[in-house]
From TrEMBL:
Record keywords, A-Z: Endosome, Lysosome, Membrane, Protein transport, Transport
Record protein name field: Vacuolar protein sorting-associated protein 16 homolog
Pfam family, one: Vps16_N
InterPro entries assigned to the protein according to its UniProt record, in alphabetical order: VPS16, Vps16_C, Vps16_C_sf, Vps16_N
Vps16 N-terminal domain segment(s): 5-90, 91-392
Compartments where found: Late endosome membrane; Lysosome membrane
Function in brief: Plays a role in vesicle-mediated protein trafficking to lysosomal compartments including the endocytic membrane transport and autophagic pathways. Believed to act as a core component of the putative HOPS and CORVET endosomal tethering complexes.
GO molecular function terms noted in the UniProt entry: actin binding
GO biological process, one term: intracellular protein transport
Top-level taxon of origin: Eukaryota
Length: 808
């Protein structure tokens, strides 16, 4: 424990420690002098621009990107204008207004609304964008008397608004969207002097202000209160000033850096001073400050309270006792039992285990972590109701953190930062740095669902893989199939789209062969101008909507001849397109049939088209074309039927002209019915003979027509004209339907014996029906007559019963 506390420095009631994170892997000949440096928060990468001021036609500044451990990630010459500030954001542009203005200073900041940028222009105006993802530039009000850039300024977040706090000598102003307001620092000593430096905390809740007399004022950023004022006894402005505090901090502090001195100033008036041998850069984090030099990187932070309680000399905290008990247990000493008894007597064993687990999360050294976690494991063996969840989770998280803290990866995350950043963001960082095996192993170890973990990593890996120009298309496709396989959430079409964007069309087609969803394959194939392959894929899918999509695209992109030839090679697509044309594009359908020499379908088209014509001549012309095509197709039946249709139309037109009968467009049967209804019997007879209408149909038509008109004499004459092909029961039934029993009786005697019972029953002649049934000795007919008898027909019933008995 003495070793652990060796680098602790007291500051008020708390302690601060400086832990080495890395020996930097870079080789900077001149160190960090004459460099602009920007390190991303949460252990992010470092951007370094060498000699930004020295610009000549033959030499350009080199922008270099390193991991936090100094491993080179990228390097490229800076080809744009002079750089005034370096910061980490997404790619964006502030537009021509800013380009045309001279930028004196700039700051990148992070607010609840996103990453923002504020600049000071050559006209001493502030322009701000609070969220670069939704870029809206705001020109802030003018500052009275400001010439050039202010002596110092910071960006604040107050009352859900982003504001600028600036100093011009001893004057202090706050700029918001509409106003410039003069403010003062509560409790600042009169001898404070002009403000030369300002710094806002990582959370934007606290502000530190340094004056030219060396007084450091700290307080809340809303400027309503004062935390402390400390005389640093330094009259030269520091190169950097950064807040150093952690969540639930006991003793927040401000870190100031001069050429060879690092000073930690606490709100308790105490200070800690560290000599520095090299040019350094301070990077504020949510729970400390990273100190980057050309040789190493350190983390300065307040020692967490739980670590203080465990590791302080002579500490009697439960966690400290449990750690000591475990050490004695490993020595096989009975003192272990004494320490455990002491903890149990205070009923603090559960708290001791929790303290060790929590402290392990805050420690950076793996050996210290192991000691604490083993002590926690030792302690929970004596507890019956202790939930293992916290222990298991911390073990897993520490294993993850230790793996990403390795120098080869270079992500020096603390446990507090990891919790704030979330696991998903950490995986994203590994993916963007192309640490795919580590990211996949981490996802599997933490049992993250595939669509959030492994599949997402594989998708990014595949998108990068297709950009490797040194590998052949075949090799990349095989690697994709082997690695990705059927991983859920990975779309081969998305990977193929990336390959196509990179100019690798053949690779994109190979990758699309692995895509199971045709709906994803086809749009990309069309985009790549592989229309015939897209059509084949659409047909194979069995999705008619997809086929229609491709066909529509081909129709718009190809000339008509090529389009039709393409469809001829795909019968399914051709059939679907014909169905579409039948409903939407009749003329195109005709062209299709002509192209294919499909005489039968072309004839059918002419027949269908004839019904849409109003003029008889046009209709007959189309029907004649249909006859010609049917003959070419050797379809004699259809040709003859069409010719008869033409004859019928001409006959109807002739009668319409002569009699005004209104027969046009009626069917043959309807025409005959109309003629019979109009009394044009000769014309009806002519149609009957000319079109060889079956006798039974004609007799039925005329029978019904005469009965409906009640022309009974004509009906009787018609029945005697020749032997009825439909029999005479029909005459009886039609007469009875018209309620003419008298006429019906005339035809009963002509009915065949087999139907005579029905005829007598139709006219309600039970006696005649009984005679006919008895004469035929038919049980079924006798039973039918009996069913129609009532109680009053007792004699008839007896007669029928005797006849039935006698037959048996």
């Amino acid at each position: 424990m003495t070793f652990i506390t060796a680098n602790w420095n007291p500051l008020g009631e708390a302690f601060y420690r400086k832990s080495e994170l890395y020996e930097m892997c870079w080789n900077l000949r001149d160190g960090l002098r004459d460099c602009l440096v920007a390190a991303a928060p949460y252990g992010g990468p470092i951007a370094l621009l060498r000699e930004p001021v020295r610009r000549s036609p033959s030499s350009r500044p080199q922008l270099e990107i390193y991991s936090a451990s100094g491993v080179s990630i990228a390097s490229f010459p800076w080809k744009s204008g002079p750089v005034v500030h370096l910061g980490w954001t997404r790619h964006f542009s502030m537009g021509q207004e800013v380009v045309q203005s001279q930028v004196l200073e700039a700051k990148v900041f992070h607010s609840p609304y996103g990453t923002g940028v504020a600049i000071v222009t050559g006209s001493s105006r502030f322009i701000m964008a609070t969220n670069i993802d939704d870029l809206k530039l705001r020109r802030l009000p003018e500052v009275p008397g400001l010439q050039g850039k202010p002596s110092c300024w910071v960006v604040l977040n107050q009352d859900r608004q982003t504001k600028v706090l600036l100093s011009t000598g001893s004057e202090l102003y706050i700029l918001d969207n509409t106003s410039c307001t003069a403010v003062s620092l509560p409790g600042l000593a009169p001898q404070g002097g002009s403000i030369v430096h300002m710094s806002v905390s990582f959370s934007y809740k606290y502000l530190a202000v340094l004056t030219d007399s060396g007084h450091l004022w700290t307080g809340p950023s809303h400027l309503q209160d004062k935390m402390s004022e400390v005389d640093t006894k330094k009259l030269t402005p520091p190169k950097q000033m950064v807040w150093c505090r952690r969540p639930k901090s006991q003793q927040p502090s401000v870190v100031l850096m001069w050429d060879r001195l690092l000073m930690v100033v606490g709100v308790c008036q105490d200070t800690i001073q560290f000599p520095t041998e090299d040019q350094c850069v301070l990077v504020g984090e949510m729970d400390g400050v990273r100190i980057i030099s050309s040789t190493n990187q350190e983390l300065l932070q307040e020692v967490p309270l739980v670590c203080q309680e465990i590791f302080k000399i002579a500490s009697m905290a439960p966690g400290a006792l449990l750690l000591e008990a475990h050490r004695e247990y490993e020595k096989s000493s009975q003192k272990a039992d004494e320490y455990l008894r002491e903890i149990k007597e205070q009923s603090m064993l559960g708290e001791a285990v929790s303290q060790c687990i929590e402290a392990a999360g805050h420690e950076y050294d793996p050996n210290t972590q192991k000691s604490l976690m083993r002590a926690a494991s030792f302690g929970k063996c004596f507890l019956t109701d202790f939930s293992p969840g916290q222990f298991v989770t911390t073990c897993r998280e520490l294993r993850v953190l230790n793996s990403v803290r390795e120098s080869s990866v270079g992500l020096p995350l603390t446990h507090t930062q990891f919790k704030q950043m979330t696991l998903q963001v950490l995986i994203d960082r590994l993916v963007y740095r192309q640490f795919y095996p580590l990211a996949i192993e981490m996802c599997r170890y933490l049992k993250i669902p595939d669509y959030q973990g492994v599949s997402r990593v594989l998708k990014h890996w595949a998108s990068c893989k297709v950009q490797q120009k040194d590998l052949s298309d075949e090799a990349i496709a095989r690697a994709m199939c082997a690695k990705v396989g059927d991983s859920p959430g990975v779309s081969y079409s998305d990977i193929a789209a990336k390959a196509y964007e990179c100019g690798r069309t053949e690779l994109a087609i190979k990758l699309l062969d692995f895509e199971a969803r045709s709906g994803e394959q086809v749009p990309l194939l069309l985009k790549m101008k592989r229309s015939q392959l897209a059509l084949s894929k659409a047909v194979e899918s069995g999705d008619t909507d997809l086929v229609y999509t491709v066909v529509t695209y081909l129709k718009n992109e190809m000339n008509r001849g090529d389009f039709f030839m393409t469809l001829r090679n795909q019968p399914v697509a051709l059939s679907l397109y014909r169905q579409f044309c039948k409903l939407q594009e009749q003329e195109t359908l005709k062209d299709l049939y002509n192209q294919d020499d499909d005489h039968k379908e072309l004839a059918n088209y002419y027949v269908t088209a004839s019904y849409r014509e109003k003029r008889l001549e046009s209709r007959l012309s189309l029907l004649q074309s249909a006859v010609d095509e049917y003959n070419k197709a050797k379809n004699e039946f259809s040709a003859k039927a069409t010719e008869e249709e033409m004859r019928l139309l001409r006959f109807q037109r002739k009668l319409d002209d002569e009699k005004g009968a209104g027969l046009l467009e009626l069917s043959l049967q309807a025409t005959m019915e109309a003629l019979l209804a109009l009394g044009l019997y000769k014309q009806a007879e002519q149609l009957y003979r000319d079109f060889r209408v079956p006798d039974k149909r004609y007799w039925w038509l005329k029978l019904k027509s005469l009965a409906e008109k009640e022309e009974w004499d004509e009906l009787e004459k018609f029945s005697k004209s020749k032997k009825s092909p439909i029999g005479y029961l029909a005459f009886v039934e039609v007469c009875m339907k018209s309620n003419n029993k008298y006429e019906a009786k005339k035809y009963v005697s002509k009915v065949t014996p087999e139907q005579r019972v029905k005829a007598h029953l139709a006219i309600s002649d039970l006696d005649g029906a009984a005679d006919a049934a008895i004469e035929r000795k038919n049980d079924s007919e006798i039973a039918t007559v009996l069913s129609r008898c009532s109680a009053a027909d007792r004699l008839l019933i007896e007669r029928l019963n005797r006849a039935s008995t006698a037959k048996k």
